[in-house]
Specification:
Elements: E1 3-5, E2 8-9, H1 10-21, H2 27-34, H3 38-50, H4 62-65, E3 69-77, H5 83-91, E4 96-101, E5 108-114, H6 117-128, E6 133-141
Helix pairs in contact: 1-3, 2-3
């Protein structure tokens, strides 16, 4: 099998693709679809778990379980030398679903899921109290149309 990305080959990507479609798909079904043994699928799966390429979680629909307020928050950090410390603190906040350092106008990009707008206001106030956070700019998502994992077919 040809390596596509580092240590992953076509079979690994095929297994990952099936698991993205249905995280509870059995090794037997995956093996049948790929024309390999169940042992091969199990071995590959265990390696993907071990090297942290994949982890198995129950992914919930945030709206159906009670998260009614989603937002994107741009965070400006001053002095810039505090970016890592600020990011580490934000990473530990349970409302955070996405966090990245950016280039451009602001330093950190944060996506959050909150119960409601009062919860969001409380979160933004806590965020603003972190040492180094100079300014925040919040954009509320009124409606989320797509929330998905990356399409592995794009890497082929």
């Amino acid at each position: 099998m040809q390596k596509i990305n580092g240590s992953l080959d076509e079979l690994d990507f095929s297994i990952l693709s099936y698991l993205q479609q249905d995280g509870r798909m059995s090794f037997t079904v995956i093996a049948e679809k790929l024309g390999v043994s169940i042992g091969t699928v199990r071995t590959r799966f265990n390696k993907l778990i071990e090297d942290r390429t994949i982890n198995i979680v129950g992914r919930v629909d945030p709206d159906k379980v009670g998260f009614r307020s989603y937002a994107h928050i741009a965070v400006y950090v001053r002095p810039a030398t505090l970016k890592e410390k600020v990011a580490q603190q934000i990473m530990g906040m349970p409302e955070v679903s996405f966090l990245a350092m950016t280039s451009g106008d602001y330093d950190l990009e944060v996506d959050v899921m909150c119960r409601d707008n009062d919860h969001l206001v409380k979160f933004v106030n806590e965020l603003s109290d972190i040492n180094g956070v100079n300014q925040t700019k919040t954009t509320i998502y009124f409606k989320v149309y797509k929330y998905a994992q990356p399409d592995l077919n794009l890497l082929k």
